[in-house]
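Build the 3D complex.
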Amino acid sequence: MPVVSELNINGKSRRVDADPDRPLLSVLRDDLDLTGTKYGCGEGQCWACTVLVDGAPMRSCITKVSAVAGKRIVTIEGLAPEGHLHPVQQAFLEADAMQCGWCTPGMILGAVSLLKNNPHPSDAEIVAGMNGHICRCGTYPRVVAAIRNSTKGGRA
Amino acid sequence: MITRRDFFSVLGGGIVVLLIEDDADAQESGGGGRRGFNEPAPTALSAWLHIGEDGKITCYTGKVEVGQNARTSLTQAVAEELHAPVGSITMVMGDTALTPFDMGTFGSRTTPTMWPQIRKAAATAREMLIDLASQKWMVDRSAIKVSDGKLMAQGHSATFGELTNGQKLTRSIPTSAALTPATEWEVAGTSVAKPNGRDIVTGSHKYPYDIKHPGMLYGKILYPASFGATLKSLDKSAAEAIPGVKVVREKLAAAREGFGSDVVGVVAPDPATAERALAGLKAEWQPLADQPSSKDVYDWFKKTAREGTSSSSLTSYDIAYIAHVPLEPRAAVAEWNGDKLTVWTGTQRPFGVRSELSGQFGIAETDVHVLMPDTGSGYGGKHNGDAALEAAILAKAAGKPVKRNWTREEEMTWAYFRPGGVIEAGAKLNPDGTIADWEFHNYNSGPSGLQTPYYVASKNEKYHPSQTPLRQGSYRGLAATANHFVRESYMDELAHSIKMDPLEFRLKNARDERLRAVIVAAADKFGWEGRKKTSRRGFGIAAGFEKGGYVATCAEIAVEKGGVKVVRVVEAFECGAVVNPEHLRNQIEGAIAMGLGGALFEQIEFANGKIATNRLSRYRVPRFADMPVIETVLVDRKDLVSAGAGETPIVGVAPAVGNAIFDAVGQRIRCLPMAPKGLSGSSA
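Done.
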């Protein structure tokens, strides 16, 4: 397969020069310095590496960069315009839904995707939809609260 | 030795308050020239605070932020005493060139030691500002009010900067100086938000794993095939043939357990090439023979005990090794400038790492600069400089900056574990249910929390150091988690042996008022007295004391499909005056979440020096679906000195759940983890 030379990230076309089998996570972090997407396990178990590809969440640590060439990629850096916060980001802050914060970007993108497909999830649906995301600091109840609060006042 | 002149040349003019360890060194000096401009500052400094000529407030502490929100609480300390907005304060943490020496951020020490020290520094700065305003306006000090970053009196008003402009004042104060009582707090004691929360939710904060410098190379280390294995032969030709790759061989000044002192590594211009280069190293290893496995290590602890063994009539519990699993694996970037070294790394002990680096290269500590960006958790697992040493060794050989990011497999194999152990308990009861005699022995797991907080007339509590086949070290709560599991499980066994309610039995044996208070608070909130026993549902209670904090935990569990579902956990916690209620709740909830893993399913499986559970698909950690309903009761004692809360909330979880399992199905489980594959056949 040929080298990947271009990726659509956060609404912009970005030049890269990537071996097609490289994980998208490494291209984002090491080539493009988009370090908001995090490495946690390298095997798709912790979902800290979650990005949105054509609106759907993908685990960038186990996604080859060739698989996303030509698709619309959104990372945490592109979730809201510069200087603004997405309602889910704001909800995480208000719910104090983080401690060390390493899992937070992945959680936020996972939550954004969950709410897009299910704007008023029950707590059980939130848990089921988010269960792939690991938070070792144990902020799970607060993340559930943040997502629940995101649905109030039509913010989702 | 740092002089006053050095402070101002580094920080700029204004006022500087120095917090000293030793009362005898307390002194005053300033523009009046009583003592001379260059007299040295006392060496045992614990914190300093600077208000610049522009009014900017910067506080310097050797403590660090790993998600436990020390950055927030220490910022509150400054805001409280200086009466300045939280947003106007910069907290510089864990930078060995800028901040005072600190032994490390562990042991729940930040709140009891650093928090009051920073408050004193800020209070002193406030008084110095009042002095300046009093002199400038010719008004009495008592007429001056400080609020919202401004001073006001009788029609006069000034910002901090307007008063500090042109000044070069220092004051050193003893750590014994007085503080505002908690009942008068305005900022302390409130739920101030994380100062850099926005940087976290936008992904803009740069953690150690994220750091990138121009010209930086990526480093990999060839780890032994198993613990204690020695290198028999190495063929590096394939690796060296890759363009841009350099193979490095060096010796560690201090051997690392299980790893040895031979460092073999590679550096490459990008991560993929570094991985290929590592794979290109062909090594043969001589394994270390006769190592116990995770199955027979418990006999090993007793066989290798260095201070005798206990009676065989005691009730015995097995405690597995577990891993910290910080979600950000350890990482470092090292850069040499001639013979001077700078390292960015995630560690709970930046000064300890500086010392390790100084020892490795034989250079003065003043030629080593360690910086500690707010890091993706530690839980006691990031105390040493393994990644820093590796990066620095590779960088020296390569002549370029090197990044050393550990993979998850490396993190779960080559870091260190919470010690495994064997713990034994025995007791004799008086007819009224009080404990007449108490015996408690801990092999290898550790002495923290070994001592019972209950009143016992006659007791024998002993820690027996043993050999350990795995590298072990600090973990949240140290051995208090294991010791509380055994003690509180055994207390439950004792209660049942005389058919006494477990809550009543504990209150009967607890004379410490603070311990009784959390037990009663948790039981009340939980509804212990009114609990209704139904089939395959159970209730358990546990209590304890560690690191200045008192905790009581109640758990309700359901046995479903042969597994344990933790339905509800109520925890009461008391650590003196509460500094930040929301962050305290976050710590308690987080500790409960983490504790459930060690209680029910986390264990390191190993054999022949290899870790079988070396990745997240093999080592289960608690997830969303594992969470019970969690309710916390904060017992706020404004009359007591604030203690830490990072660890103690974890200790009551395992025994409360274990006691609930017994209540539900009559199965007494005497090991941690209690139910890694569900409940069938897992009792000791």
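Helices of chain A lie at 24-31, 65-68, 87-94, 104-117, 123-130, 140-150.
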